[in-house]
Hints:
InterPro entries: HNH_nuc. This protein is mainly alpha-helical. It has helices spanning 8-11, 16-26, 67-88; strands at 47-50, 62-65.
Amino acid sequence: MAWEGSTRRQRLPKNWPAIRRRVIRRDEGRCTALYSDGRRCELPGTDVDHIVPGDDHREANLRLLCPWHHQRKSSAEGGTAAAQVRVSVHRPKPQHPALED
């Protein structure tokens, strides 16, 4: 399950259901993702997505996505986060034996 082990649900504001309803109404119940040719996705939106990841729950940072676009975006964010962790692991460069004192 996607929420398993996550603290995300606890970090949502108490009025999240009302915020979610407003976003769904604003986005007319349709996915807001755009295809490369500029067309909007035709599928119903079911997932309220944070445009910029994190805990900014302002409506300007929220949009409605279909499950396919939301999964695609979340997977990309997860991959980026994992890559940053891999890059941040510092491994000392081995020194050439001839340069050791």
